[in-house]
Design goal:
Length: about 240
Amino acid sequence: MDPIVGDKPPRISIATRLRNNFLAGLIICAPIAITIWLTFAFIDWADSWVTPYIPQRYNPEYYFNIAIPGTGLVVAVVFITIIGFLGKNLIGRSIVNFGESILNRTPLVRTLYKSIKQIFETVLKDQSTSFKKVGLIEFPQAGTWALVFIAAEAQGELAERFDALGQKMVAVFLPPTPVPTAGFLLFVPSDKLILLDMTPEEAARLLISGGLIVPEHHGKVMPPVLPAAFGTAKR
């Protein structure tokens, strides 16, 4: 007997093949092109701010007569590094304190300066846990969950008010999709927060992609409590 021959797979039309090849090429080329564009856009932005203040004799563009991308960015990085180095010694610290004393005596400016400085010190300090953890909270209603970045445990007057209510509250940042640069500051009970193993970078990709890029997870599910770093973990 002749072997049974199954149905032949349907032939793919030329138009469908061209479309599939185009989409495959788009997936490969688009991320590369967007990354290159964003990189050069950032470099041009930094150059536009710094290059005009570089003395002509120190500007390589003066000698080569061509625009060199990244000159301003390199100068800015070197300048900031030098300022940080000088700010750690006695003389540099005295100069910084003198400058801060002037800003602290200037109305309106002192409020802005103190707020910005506090934000940078909180986020950039070595032992900071701010925005290094990701979690889930029920929002906007029970049974519906939203991704949040954990900022810090409630402090100051807020902590006193919450303690009077017998609650340990945590400040979280709830970003929107697909642009996670704006959002809401919420205070939620620590026992209502579910910690996730994903990194802030993975969470940002998840938000920007609208849930399409989901990070892999190979660990155990974390209990819905905060780590000991926040002082609210249950035993």
